[in-house]
Amino acid sequence: MEWVKKNFGFVISLAVAVVLVGVGMWYLLGTKSEADGVEAELQAKNEQLDGLIQRPVFPDAANIKLAQDEEARVVTFIKEARKNFTEVSKPEGLDTAGFKSHLEATITELTREADRAGVKLPDKGTSATYGFTFDEQRKQLQLPANTLVPLAVQLGDLQTLCHILFEAKVPSLVSIKRAPAGSTETGGTGQLLTKKISTNSVLGAVTYPYEVVIQGFSQELASVLTGLVESPDSLIVKSLNVERGNLETTSRSALVGMTAPGANPYGMDPGLGRRFGLGGRYNPQQAVPQVAPATANRPGEVVLEEKPLRVTLGIELVKVLPQATDKPARTIAPANAEN
């Protein structure tokens, strides 16, 4: 103890040195384990690189030429495929006044076309005419600038869809819905869908979802589907729901000609048929058609009685973005054999 008291500073220094040596050993061992892990990972990457180099497919001149030919083939295929889709038409210099003027002109044209085709439009509400999902835009004095282009594109799409419906002469157009344009419109309310406009930047395609509800019969439904298929635009029917509708006309009956007792079932008078060698020998005294006595009610033969249908169509219109200018081809130099 006397020696410790006399050499107290030396003892403290020795203790600190021992602690530092212990900390250093702990740090060294921990760092060595990390270094061993990194070295093992590096060794695995080197082995993977050696395996890639030793494979028959190697970035030499021949393989690079094959890759360039394949890239050119893909580019050609994409150009040919783009011909089957319409491009997104983005009007330039569009302002609120210009859009609203175009909107009102389009609504007037569609309303007149529906009247000519005998198509009943949905309830127009407080407006003078049905707004074709643009009732809110008709009320607003100023529209957000970032929504003018998508609204103009959707207006053109709805015009295309309505042309198909009017040409099919559907008895009643129940409703039309579109995707919201911009953050100012809330999806899933009124005339807007919960689905949004989606863009595939890799393929350069934009998908616009719509929903159309009509009432009619199978003949009008077939005409609508035919019009969608034959349309130059890429219209895809994603969903089809058919249920019993509720039209003012409750049924459609296809009737054959009224048949009287003794009349030819094919619609020709027996005497006239015999005159032309049909149904026996011709007798001039029987040439005069025999008119059946009038009856109060002579029901026809009903061959088809169809009930009205309520059809909900989920439609997506796919368009491609305007093609950008061609980028210069990438040049890949073959690997040096010596390396």
3D structure, described in words:
The chain has 339 residues and is α+β, with helices and mostly antiparallel strands. It is built from 8 helices and 8 strands, in the order αααβαααβββαββαββ. It has helices at 2-6, 8-54, 61-82, 96-117, 135-139, 145-167, 218-230, 270-275; strands at residues 86-87, 172-178, 198-200, 205-216, 234-244, 252-255, 302-306, 309-320. Helix 6 packs across helix 7 (218-230).
Short précis:
This protein is of the alpha+beta class and 339 residues long. Helix content is 42%, strand content 17%. Among the domains are: 12-51; 86-250 and 307-320, Ribosomal protein S6/Translation elongation factor EF1B (Alpha-Beta Plaits, 2-Layer Sandwich).
Topology of this structure?
Elements: H1 2-6, H2 8-54, H3 61-82, E1 86-87, H4 96-117, H5 135-139, H6 145-167, E2 172-178, E3 198-200, E4 205-216, H7 218-230, E5 234-244, E6 252-255, H8 270-275, E7 302-306, E8 309-320
DSSP E strands, number:
8
Largest sheet: 6 strands, mixed
Overall 3D geometry? elongated
* Cα radius of gyration in angstroms: 40 Å
Tally the helices. 8
Q: Can you tell me the CATH architecture of the domain at 86-250 and 307-320?
A: 2-Layer Sandwich
* Chain-averaged pLDDT: 77
Query: Which residues sit in consecutive blocks of at least 5 with pLDDT less than 50?
Result: 249-268, 326-339
Report the helical percentage. 40-55%
Query: What class would the helix/strand composition place it in?
Result: alpha+beta
CATH homology superfamily of the domain at 86-250 and 307-320 = Ribosomal protein S6/Translation elongation factor EF1B
Strand content: 15-25%
Following the backbone from N to C, one meets helices and strands in this order, namely HHHEHHHEEEHEEHEE
CATH class identity of the domain at 86-250 and 307-320: Alpha Beta
